[in-house]
Amino acid sequence: MQPAYILHSRPYRDSSLILELLTPEFGRIGCVARGARRDKQRRRQSLQPFAPLLVSLLGRGELKTLGPVESAGSALWLQGRAVYAGLYANELLVRLLAVGEAQYGVFACYQTLLQGLAGVAGESAEPLESPLRRFELQLLYELGSCPQLDYCAHSQEPVTADGNYRLENETGFVPVFRQGGRQAVSEFSGADLQALEWARHSGEFDRALLAPAKRLTRLLLAPLLGEKPLQSRELFKQVYKNDDR
Prior knowledge:
One of its GO terms (cellular component) is bacterial nucleoid. Belongs to the RecO family. The chain has a five-stranded mixed β-barrel with strand order 1-2-3-5-4. The protein has helices at about 40-45, 80-95, 105-120, 125-140, 190-200, 210-225, 230-240, and strands at about 1-10, 15-25, 25-35, 55-60, 65-70, 150, 155-160, 165-170, 170-175, 185-190. The mean pLDDT is about 90. It folds into two domains: about 1-70, CATH 2.40.50.140; about 75-245, Recombination protein O, C-terminal domain (de novo design (two linked rop proteins), Up-down Bundle). Strand 4 and strand 5 form a beta hairpin. Helix 2 (about 80-95) runs antiparallel to helix 3, helix 2 packs antiparallel against helix 7 (about 230-240) and helix 4 (about 125-140) crosses helix 6 (about 210-225). It is of the alpha+beta class. The two termini are about 35 Å apart.
């Protein structure tokens, strides 16, 4: 048996479910939970999102069969806006992770995210920002889709605090030489990049860093996600019309 979280589920045939799981050894993996819709008590008690599980996966094909399932601890009950933040993280993982590739680092940072989200009441979006930005940055690093934040690709040296840098997706951060004018969406101060690199390691995001962190992660996630909108983000906007994660 191995640790797992349920990222997504959908009905399958008359009484079963197809589950998308996150595991450390296989990363994202699909499986059939036979009879799960018929066994309502089993589904209610164990096959829930955000609940740490121990699972057995049977079969040799890409779509496994779910064997015995055990609880690996108490479910982390998310509240209010934190529920949608958790669904957003689940959708990112389903969309971005390849099937069957080990993801020990991603599994660890997902656990850290859930612990952070469980520690907030979810009555406002602000307390969710720091754990979400940390998760996004770590996920991007694990996928090899985030350049070193405090490194200049042009000079091949650390960025300078008083410099300005533009993110180029295939290159990294390159210097911007100009005087005055508004900073473009893809531009960041060297001081912010240094602070973001430190925050990524420490997990502590100063409030002033949250805006550039969100701007950076959205720039990096956009080419990976493509044009298809995130359903969790759209649902969040419908429920909480004045918030924007």
